[in-house]
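Justification of resources, computational component.

The compute hours requested in this renewal are based largely on the per-chain cost of generating structure records like the one below. Each record pairs the submitted sequence with a full structure-token output. That output is archived, and it is also reused by downstream analysis tasks.
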Amino acid sequence: MGSGSFGARLAAFVAVAVFIAGLSAVVLWTREEARRLDEAVASQVNFVLSEAKESLETQLNLGLALGDLPQVETLLARARAALPGIQSVAVLDEGGTILFSTNAVEVGEALSFRPAVNSGGPDGDVSGFWSEERGAERAYGVGLATSFDTVAGSVLVRMPAGAMAEPLRHYALTLSIGALLIAVPLALLGWLAGLRLAAGPRRSLTDIAAVLEGLGEGRAGAAPLSPAQSPAQSPAQALGLPVPAFTDAVRRRLTILDEAEREVARLDELA
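The structure output for this chain reads:
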């Protein structure tokens, strides 16, 4: 294998290794960022819903029916303004029918979010915060309870399931560009370092190959060389290979063959 072929193979190996490392880092950090974004959105929604819940339950405890509460639209509009990128904020009765919503088209719509219409939460807490994703929609809700701890309804936030997709794509793109800017010089340095580290062993292998190829040249009368005289000693020691002993053994056998050939030739002449 020529030096050009070795350099090309080393460059390909370094490029693939750096690419896989960079891709793995981008994927892991993007997943971590997605988790953090999801937690941040859930925390913000929980805060807004908790404020709406407190205001609505205060009025419910005065003995008013959920459908008769005043200024609910103003309350929902304020919650809607605090949560950009959502579809609507709505108040549902205990049967899951929307009584108030920031999107007037939704009023009267019956929803099937079971935590909202039944128990207020997956664990049976009538006032617990919950979230659920269905198809292209994600819903966050909190149950409304009366002073007797009975379910009065719920407050619901609806948003697209991919609302955080665009920030994540932008984050992944920025991260990929940064990884590329780091990976290119890193791969170049790795390639140059690999060539430098491999230069010594490659020279040693070339010297050993030359010695082995020349074992049969001028074998007549060639005397076995001692390890100190062997030209392969230095590269062999560099690689930790028993080449001197091997070459001496081959030379001894070549000497025996030369002597045998001379003896056969002598016998032919006598015959």
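Residues 3-60 form the longest helix (58 residues). The first strand starts at residue 88 and ends at 93.
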